[in-house]
Design brief:
The complex is a heterodimer. Chain A is mainly α. Chain A has 13 helices and no strands. Chain B has a six-stranded mixed sheet with strand order 6-7-8-3-9-10, with helices on both faces. A five-stranded antiparallel sheet of chain B has the order 13-12-11-14-20. Chain B has a five-stranded antiparallel sheet with strand order 15-19-16-17-18, with no helix packed on it. Helices cover 23% and strands 32% of the residues of chain B. Chain B is an alpha+beta fold. Chain B starts with 11 loop residues before the first strand and ends with a strand. In chain B, helix 2 runs parallel beside helix 4 and helix 3 packs across helix 4. The chains are: A mainly alpha, B alpha+beta.
Chain lengths: 279, 362
């Protein structure tokens, strides 16, 4: 047996794992969505025909984009702040960022119910300060979904940006300064282009995770804040397996499409930021 | 870069500069004057404050006290970008997302240099470091020596009055390091900038510098030309840090000279006033062949036993046990007619009194 073949045996356990836990389940989903029992596109036609389903899909996209952007706008500066701290302080700050990740999403979402509820902390504060007489409706709103999801996903964004930023040699910034760059110029021309890759990756990870979010919109969102995962869940509970599978396929393809588009777009962006004019 | 007729270097003056980190003084009452166009090396072990001094000059570290002036103007309140100082970093610090051309053009672009002028200056700087054909490459596509030269071109392309080099050669391998020394010397005479070079490598310091400031514990232990720092160290620390040497404690002898207990000899008075020890370089000591080779008049003679010969190429270094129990080193050129000494050979050694350098301080 040639050496290459013998070595490829070593890949077998990993391959087996991938097939069992990834290829087979996704295959079953595709099978359920497209065959009933013969090949059919009925489930997809149903999705396209009913505006309500489309509204859920668009809402999922919108929430995911908003959450990913909000995480980027908050997480990138936080990661930058941590990276600029003295080396001894950084692990402590990163630890604090990571602590919320150890709590389940369910617990954190319940915590938001306590914070945002009619008799919650925020309303209590507003009324004590005399800003309002009546409790403001905070819970079961789109805003609550945004706040909850951003809080849950932010650590992932910060960690991704942070690890990209620690790769950047701090001497590069010093070099930029001594060569004539003000601190803002050093950031824009050296730090930003070198950390952009990490920021894009973090944003895409948060986006992917958002697309599949289930608990948070279900518990603290309003009725119009239903997302694809909630819709799939309700179809499954009504034993509409075929339609649920079709929805899952649509969600998967949409996520992949956005991912590919974002990569193509940002590759040019990263390139443009890195590139200055050559002779 | 510039006409060599117009001196472009700046005078630098450190005035009582100090830097404290908590209880630790990285720099204490640091006083230093560097002439326009001078090549000055800050030489010292790690923790001696040389990098702190450089970082204060560059504007990366704030001084706790004192003043730093470039051409008479205090610079401590200026941010790094306003100091008109070039710098070559130990890690080179080339921007990985820019081509060689863009790296070198970076300081010019920030100074809003018109494009045609910029192109010419970058080309000139790259030609100077013999990398004219590499403008389109990325730093990651270059060897260490080439990266070093790009860093050099980038640091001088905007004709700074002062050029700082922080352990700039230590990332290179030995051969390359020696080639770069020559290149830097050459560059210095061509540019005329004042160069402040930081290193822990005494060889680099000796070959490159106009003057060397040997640093220890945040202070200058001795500052002088390379040959004087080597030949006339005033402290034990400098004598041991620069080159190799034998240090012997001495006591005042009757008649004005000093007595060297370890060698069992006396050295006449000349210049020995206040000496606590003497420094004797290994190459200043000669072996006499079995007493047949009479020493020159006035040489100091003593005996020892060869412990370990060390072959160094063109020279052999011998470790010699003295009757007092001390070990010392001496070095001689090979092929001087006499058979090489072997372990346990008795040997008679001699040196000229004025080659024994008096050490007055620790």
């Amino acid at each position: 047996m040639p050496a290459a073949d013998r070595h490829s045996i070593l890949a077998a356990p990993g391959l087996l794992l991938l097939v069992t836990f990834f290829v087979v389940p996704v295959g079953i989903v595709f099978d359920q969505g497209l065959f009933d029992p013969a090949f059919t596109t009925a489930h997809f036609e149903r999705f396209l025909a009913r505006g309500a389903y489309m509204a859920v899909f668009l809402n999922t996209l919108r929430v995911s984009v908003v959450v990913a952007m909000a995480c980027l706008l908050i997480g990138y500066p936080v990661a930058y702040f941590i990276v600029r701290q003295p080396p001894r302080r950084r692990p402590v700050l990163m630890f604090l960022v990571l602590v919320p990740l150890w709590m389940s999403i369910l617990v954190r979402t319940y915590a938001w119910m306590v914070v945002l509820g009619r008799e919650g902390i925020v309303n209590g504060l507003l009324m004590t300060l005399g800003i309002t007489d009546q409790p403001v409706k905070l819970l079961f709103t789109t805003g609550a979904v945004y706040v909850g999801m951003v809080q849950i996903l932010l650590p992932i964004m910060i960690v991704t940006c942070y690890s990209a930023m620690t790769e950047i040699d701090q001497n590069l910034l010093r070099a930029a300064r001594i060569l004539g760059a003000r601190s803002g110029q050093a950031f824009a021309r050296v730090f930003l282009p070198l950390s952009l890759e990490g920021a894009v990756t973090g944003t895409l990870i948060v986006f992917i995770l958002s697309m599949g979010f289930f608990i948070t919109p279900a518990l603290i969102g309003g009725r119009r804040d239903m997302m694809m995962a909630n819709l799939i869940s309700s179809q499954v509970s009504q034993t509409n397996w075929g339609f649920a599978a079709a929805l899952a396929i649509i969600l998967l393809l949409a996520t992949v499409a956005v991912l590919v588009a974002a990569r193509l777009l940002t590759r040019r962006l990263v390139y443009a930021a890195a590139k200055t004019d050559t002779p | 870069m510039t006409d060599s007729t117009e001196p472009s270097g700046a005078r630098i003056r450190f005035h009582n500069v100090s830097k404290r980190y908590g209880d630790v003084a990285a720099l204490a009452d640091f006083d230093l004057e560097i002439g326009a166009g001078e090549f000055l090396t800050l030489l010292g072990p790690s923790g001696s404050g040389k990098t702190t001094a450089l970082n204060i000059l560059a504007g990366f570290t704030e001084a706790s006290g004192g003043d730093v002036r470039i051409d008479g103007q205090s610079i401590l309140s200026l941010p790094p970008e306003k100091r008109n100082v070039g710098m070559v970093f130990q890690s080179f610090a080339l921007f990985p997302h820019m081509s060689v051309f863009e790296n070198v053009a970076f300081p010019l672009k920030l100074r809003k240099t018109p494009k045609p002028v910029m192109r010419d200056k970058v080309a000139e700087a790259l030609d100077m470091v013999r990398l004219g054909d590499y403008a389109g490459r990325r730093p990651s596509e270059l060897s260490g020596g080439q990266q070093q030269r790009v860093a050099l071109a980038r640091a001088v392309v905007f004709q700074p009055a002062v050029l700082l080099m922080d352990e700039s050669l230590s990332a290179l391998d030995l051969k390359l390091r020696e080639a770069m020394r020559l290149e830097i010397r050459h560059l210095h005479s061509r540019l005329g900038s004042t160069i402040v070079f930081v290193t822990h490598d005494q060889g680099e310091a000796l070959t490159l510098s106009d003057r060397i400031a040997v640093m220890r514990d945040g202070r200058i232990a001795q500052i002088d030309t390379p040959d004087r720092v080597y030949d006339q160290p005033t402290t034990r620390f400098v004598a041991e840090f620069i080159g190799q040497t034998n240090l012997f404690d001495v006591t005042p002898a009757d008649g004005g000279g000093v007595h060297v207990a370890d060698l069992g000899v006396a050295i006449p008075a000349e210049g020995m006033n206040g000496a606590k020890a003497i420094s004797l370089r290994p190459e200043k000591i000669r072996a006499l062949a079995n007493g047949s080779d009479a020493p020159d008049a006035g040489m100091v003679v003593f005996d020892g036993m060869v412990d370990e010969p060390l072959f160094l190429g063109e020279t052999v270094q011998y470790s010699v046990n003295l009757p007092s129990g001390r070990t010392m080193q001496f070095r001689e050129n090979r092929g001087e007619g006499r058979a090489p000494l072997r372990r346990n050979d008795r040997v008679r050694l001699a040196f000229r009194p004025h080659d024994a350098v008096p050490i007055v301080r620790d």
